[in-house]
Amino acid sequence: MYVTVLYDQSSQNTLASIVNEAIQRELSDIQTIKWYAVNKDAIMPCIGCFNCWIKTPGKCMMKDVTTAINEDIIRINIVIYVTPIIYGSYSTAIKRTLDHIVPILLPFFKKSKGEVHHEQRYSKRPNFMMLAYNETITSEERETFIALTQANSVNLDIPNPKVYFCSAKKDILQTIGEIKSSLLKYTQGGKA
Amino acid sequence: MKKICFINGSPKTGESCSLYMIDFITKRLEDHFKNYLIVNALSFLKHSNKESVFAEILSCDAIVVVFPLYVDSMPSHLLEMLENLDIYYRNHRINPFNPPCLYGLANCGFIEGHQNVNALKILRNYSSSAGFKWCGGLGLGGGEMIRSTKDQIPLQSKIALPIYQALCTLIESIKNLNAIEADTATLFANYNFPKWLFMFMANRFWITSAKSNGIAKKMMYVKPHIH
Predict the structure, then answer these.
(1) What's the whole-number average pLDDT of chain B?
(2) Same structural domain for residues B115 and B74?
(3) Confidence label for B17 from pLDDT (cuts 50, 70 and 90)
(4) How many Å lie between the alpha carbon of B6 and the closest alpha carbon of chain A?
(5) Are residues B115 and B213 in the same domain?
(6) Tens digits of per-residue pLDDT, B30-69?
(7) I want to staple A84 with a disulfide (CB 3.0 to 4.6 A). Which of A13, B146, B176, B226 is the partner?
(8) Complex ipTM
(9) Are A61 and A51 in contact (CB under 8 A)?
(10) Do B34 and B92 reside in the same domain of the chain?
């Protein structure tokens, strides 16, 4: 089982550093995890040039950490996004990595579940897991985030991600424990 | 007379569907707003005096956030700008008893306007968190088509009529600083166009665009990350 964990290192969120440290510590015995400390200012925003479809197919012109992340994504089993949840969205840094996921798709459209979506460039794609944290998460934000991750999964043609919310320091270890159990279950052949 | 601000979430420096929409709306609001401000979210992030821009935005009666859909939500640079605006507004509490009206106008490349639903919900949550007056949003399908066929398929043509009518509803709401009268104050609109034809045209568009860069159709399928 190969896992990539992306966590937001640039967030000023009050829980950010505690969550980031805790997840690295608690999952440190899983040898096949690759870690990405994502800094929003180290990634150029996607400028919608579509060169990754029509000029350099499959590759973004901008070279930053998202190049390596995309190379991993089509090889590994699970990606865990560790993100502050703001307004029901990923944080800016994590969203920036997702905006750069476009090269792993094809520009061509297909119909999926009655809607128009992009065709996939690669046959292998990982499952997603989300750890979304903030001291205040409203019910609307929670609902929006779940719907957003499900829409992402439809676009990437992967199963609905498992989403873990955490809104208090005292719950961090338990939430990460649940993620770890889920990873171990996946290793044993079950579903993550 | 009232003041209005458009926040353009498109990162494109030239033509974009978002800019076309802003142009379309401003032309129809000239009699209702004494002046309007257009702030490009991506350029803003490099602005040397962000606070003066925030103060100007918050002096407006209406803020319209116009953006392309990026991976089911708003582009990261727009999210970053809006988060900074939220923090500024919380810290300065400008006119808290009469907050600006906030509207959203999202467009996506897929033909279905409803695929903008999560992006507009995020904007609604944002409005609630920041303390603006949420007046609703409009999600348009076929964004790239709206821009690239604006001369061949005018918005008032039969094919584009649902989009035109939805835009008129949004414009009327903005004129009166009212919420959009629709379920959950959110509207979605698409071209009157069969999906198969839309996909056929869009796929041809990408093949032609790649060809103009010397990329044959077969090359468009390469898998550079598999060595």
Answers:
(1) 94
(2) yes
(3) very high
(4) 19
(5) no
(6) 888 878 899 999 999 999 899 999 999 999 999 999 999 9
(7) A13
(8) 0.96
(9) yes
(10) yes
> Is the CB of B220 less than 8 angstroms away from the CB of A57?
yes
B76, B126, B220 ranked by CB distance to A45: nearest: B76
Residues of chain B in contact with residue A107, where contact means CB-CB under 8 angstroms, are 203, 206, 220
Q: Look at B42 and A54 and tell me if their CB atoms are within 8 Å.
A: no
**Cα–Cα distance, A71 to A59 (Å, whole number):** 10
**Token pair recorded at residue A144:** 């929006």
Range of the domain at B227: 194-227
Q: Taking residues A48-71, what's their average pLDDT?
A: 96
Query: Are B72 and A110 in contact (CB < 8 Å)?
Result: no
Q: In sequence order, which ranges of chain A are alpha helices (DSSP H)?
A: 16-26, 51-54, 65-73, 92-99, 139-156, 172-187
Cα B207 from Cα B200, distance rounded (Å): 11
pLDDT bracket for residue A78 (50, 70, 90): very high
Residue partners of A2: CB distance under 8 A and separation at least 6: A32, A34, A75, A76, A77, A78
Check B215 against A54: CB less than 8 A apart. yes
DSSP A30: -
User: In sequence order, what DSSP letters do the residues of A126-143 get, joined into one string?
Assistant: -EEEEEEE-S---HHHHH
Fold classification of A3-187 (topology level): Rossmann fold (3.40.50)
Kindly state the DSSP code that residue B146 receives in the 8-state scheme. Answer: H
Q: Which of A71, A73, A81, A32 is nearest to A187 (CA)?
A: A32
DSSP B47: -
Of residues B73, B110, B203, nearest to A95 (C-beta)? B73
Query: B83, A83 in Cβ contact below 8 A?
Result: no
* pLDDT above 60 (res A190): no
Q: B136 near B65, Cβ under 8 Å?
A: no
For tokens 């639903």, name the residue.
B117
d(CA A145, CA A176): 19
Q: How many domains does chain B have?
A: 2
Q: What is the tens place of the pLDDT at every residue in B75-132? A: 999 999 999 999 999 999 887 889 999 999 999 999 999 999 999 999 999 999 999 9
Q: Six-digit token pair at A149?
A: 């991750």
Q: What is the pLDDT of residue A66?
A: 96
